[in-house]
Design brief:
It is built from 20 helices and two strands. By secondary structure, it is mostly helical. It has one domain. The protein has a two-stranded antiparallel ribbon with strand order 1-2. Helix 11 runs antiparallel to helix 12. The chain is globular. The two termini are about 30 Å apart.
């Protein structure tokens, strides 16, 4: 009975990760409701399993602490927000009596500038924490890790294939069912091509690492290569300049990182470089065969009125305004999820476009959570670095199985790519991307735990 419950929970967890991008990135309330419903069912099954086992097994990590810390800070921001109209009126009176004091200064000592948005962001974050916790508990064991690995590669292949077919079929609808205002920047189920590229960046390194690290049998190298070629071609043809930059960085990082952790790198570096070169040539050939014009056009600089409406306002302008926001709300931030409302006070585009995000996940985190956001970000990076060190041992004394090392290599490069892309976009504000990101971290944590188990077995001679 317990095993059956675990299998049901594992299937439900992977199904949620698989379905999230097809729900148009799971950014709308109905999609969050659907993910919440699945999560509640999974938690109920987990509770039944705990009752049957008469034990509640939890394996907390530092990542749990960082995520829960963000949730706590957001709760404090909601509690500190003005709770009545009279308080808002009194703030407006102060500004009127003292015009030299900006409205941003008046609310800087308060909590969230948009409590409803902060509550929605807390709900979304709580759902992500729930899925991360389940992934940490359920994706333990070689067979489950392998199953998740196969599902993720299949997801990347299907999403890439659908995106390519949709892009060149001439349809102006997402998945042929939903109309969008700007179909030229959509790709697959994503309204924004940058988010589609970001999602695929988290999956592209997995099949490449499987071949490079010899994590699969030779007869399956062709399958992994085909999956990687389709995903790499799709990333390029999304037209995302950030996606193209990250793709090139990931290809290079896969080779260098594999070389750094492989004890026999001196003997096999040449073959690894040859494989990466062939893969890059295959992606380039696929892009040229399908048509490189959408990619080339993205690097042309529009001028005049076309420039004003194609990229209003530009990222440097948004980042300067965000720095001003951080300076005025250094300690407690503007509130988790309240960035778009707070930005209106700093908008320098004369209302040409509504800015929802900072196009930099790091800046937005600090703007929304203040100094606490900086502390949480540093804690997250340190915890992630430790997880990578555990999952990718650099010594040959306690070697992990090849496929586990290959999976750890692919996940590490995927996370590095998202870290780079987050510096000039907001992929982690998209629920589907954030969910996949946390699932990969859970895989990395569990791979590190298995590496520690292998080391213990070697030391004890078990």
């Amino acid at each position: 009975m317990v095993r059956m419950l675990e299998r049901l929970m594992l299937v439900g967890l992977l199904a949620a990760v698989f379905l999230a991008p097809w729900m148009f990135g799971a950014v709308e309330p109905w999609a969050i409701h659907a993910l919440t419903a699945i999560l509640l069912v999974l938690l109920l099954l987990w509770g039944v399993k705990a009752v049957l086992e008469r034990a509640l097994r939890i394996h907390p990590t530092a990542i749990h602490g960082v995520l829960l810390g963000a949730l706590l800070i957001a709760g404090i921001q909601v509690a500190r927000a003005p709770s009545s109209t009279s308080e808002a009126d009194s703030a407006a009176f102060v500004v009127a009596e003292a015009p030299h004091i900006s409205s941003a200064t008046v609310v800087s000592a308060r909590g969230s500038q948009d409590p409803p948005s902060t509550r929605r962001a807390m709900w979304q974050l709580a759902v992500l924490i729930g899925y991360f916790g389940l992934a940490r508990e359920l994706l333990r064991g070689a067979r489950r890790l392998a199953g998740a690995f196969v599902m993720l590669m299949l997801l990347g292949f299907l999403l890439s294939l659908v995106g390519l077919i949709q892009k060149f079929s001439g349809t102006g609808r997402l998945l042929w069912i939903r109309e969008v205002e700007a179909p030229e920047i959509a790709f697959g189920p994503f309204v924004n091509r940058n988010h589609a590229a970001g999602f695929l960046e988290l999956l592209f390194p997995l099949p490449v690492a499987a071949i490079l690290g010899r994590g699969v049998a030779r007869e399956r190298w062709g399958i992994c290569a085909a999956l990687a070629l389709v995903m790499g071609t799709a990333i390029v043809l999304t037209g995302s300049r950030g996606g193209l930059l990250v793709l090139g960085t990931q290809v290079l990082a896969l080779l260098l990182l594999w070389w750094a952790v492989n004890a026999r790198a001196g003997q096999s570096l040449r073959s690894g470089a040859l494989m990466v070169g062939l893969l890059s040539a295959g992606i380039l050939a696929g892009v040229l065969w399908i048509g490189a014009e959408p990619v080339v056009s993205r690097w042309r600089t529009p001028e005049g009125v076309e420039a004003a409406f194609s990229n209003p306002p530009d990222r440097p302008m948004i980042w300067r305004a965000t720095w001003d926001m951080i300076r005025d709300h250094l300690w407690w931030g503007v509130g988790l999820g309240a960035y778009s409302v707070a930005y209106t006070r700093y908008d320098r585009s004369a209302g040409l476009a509504r800015v929802e995000h900072a196009h930099n996940d790091y800046l937005q985190l600090v703007a929304e959570l203040g100094v606490w956001g900086i502390a949480l970000l540093l804690g997250f990076l340190i915890a992630l670095w430790r997880a990578i060190r555990r999952a990718l041992p650099q010594t040959e004394r306690y070697p992990a199985p090849r496929w586990e090392r290959a999976l750890a290599l692919g996940v590490t490069v995927a996370l590095i790519g998202m870290g780079i892309h987050s510096a000039f976009d907001f992929n982690l504000q998209v629920t589907a991307n954030a969910l996949l990101f946390l699932l990969l971290i859970a895989l990395l944590e569990n791979l590190g735990a298995r590496g520690a188990d292998h080391q213990l077995i070697e030391e004890k001679g078990i």
